[in-house]
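Lab notebook, bench 4. The sequencing result for the construct came back, and we need a structural model before the next group meeting so we can plan mutations. Quick request posted to the team channel:

Model the 3D structure of this chain.
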Amino acid sequence: GRGNFHMLPNGVFHVRGPHAGVQETRAFIAANTTPDFATQSGPMLVIGGAVHPRFQTDGESLKIRNGVGVTRSGAVMFALSRKPVSFGAFARLFRESLHCPDALYLDGTISVLYAKGLGVFGGLFPVGPLIVVKRKP
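Done. Here's the predicted structure in token form:
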């Protein structure tokens, strides 16, 4: 198909108990994981420490982008660009600054982030799917 989701490999962000991961879709299926939460999206941004092979260093497609990665120690890192960026630049953020060996593109232009203390930014349209992160009592 067309569009970002069909730029293989795409992937899955998954959480089971206190553990989270990002895997290519085929690897996730093969692992027969039964997560508490999972969402599939694409394309993968970073795969085993390498930027997706189809991304140019700084391609011409500049969009607001958001994604998720998991560090080697298991910390989940969400990011939303404030300005339009290329897939290559966004992938390097996850690999080089957030230290995520695997990261997944979630969405673009419609992305919104609310963080306590930061407020709301992004979002040109009504929001659809949500990922909510909150502290357990």
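Residues 12 and 40 are 4 Å apart (CA to CA).
Will bring this to the meeting.
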